[in-house]
Amino acid sequence: MRITLEVWRQPSAQAPGDFVTYVVDDATPEMSMPELLDRLNDQIVEAGGEPVAFESDCREGICGCCGITVDDRPHGPVANTPTCQQHLRNFSEGDVVRLEPFRSAAFPVVKDLVVDRSALDRVVRGGGFVSVDTGTAPDAEDRQITFRRAEKALDFAACIGCGACVAACPNGAAHLFSGALLTHFSTLPQGRPERSRRARGVVKAVEAEFGPCSTYGECVEVCPAGIPLAAVAAVNKEMMRAAWRRGSDD
Q1: Integer Cα distance of 143 and 66 in angstroms
Q2: Count of Cβ atoms closer than 10 Å to residue 243 Cβ
């Protein structure tokens, strides 16, 4: 299977970048995007060139670090599917495929297809945690949670932090990511004692790092975890609640 790749090459964050064309003649339909890049890098190294820098870890759709833009779409042509599970069977012999990093002001390019997504980490530091005094944590079964509530929390906790929602948004907003985080914690009793403080911290980080949400909905189309658009509404909901309870952690 012959695939022509137009790959974004940028040696450093300070240097300009451009697309470079490569041809992989021995690709197979079973290959994922990271596997295709592995094969391409084998060719480049054999020719004495500098391999393409890209991120990947689990390659099972769990870690979220493999994300790139494929033909102007974060992750690739198959909706709600991470880059590592986008396979060449979704392309045809002789196709020209353009690969570039996630495009967002919040995700500066580090090198080639690698971007700095630490802005998402700063949102998590703003409130993506629960505080429990050492030695005082209750047994897990002490707090009864209904099945429906637990399932809701798990649905929103499924976010893998890949950043595709930000890259897909015309405004570069992170409301799907931050709303999933806030909904996850506010649904469970463990997250309620710091609910208002968490909302203020997360929203402050989101407003500092990302653009405003205009509810375009592109984020939902590319989210590998299938986080629903309801997560976006949770950001304003939790912030309004925190404003009414100013000075309270609950």
Answers
A1: 37
A2: 11
Question: pTM here?
Answer: 0.92
CA distance 163 to 102: 8
From 228, 102, 235, 117, select the one nearest 178 (Cα to Cα).
235
Q: Residues 21, 4: contact at Cβ < 8 Å? A: yes
By the 8 A CB rule, do 249 and 196 touch? yes
The pLDDT of residue 134: 73
Inter-residue contact 88 to 1 (CB < 8 Å): yes
Strands 96-100 and 3-9: parallel
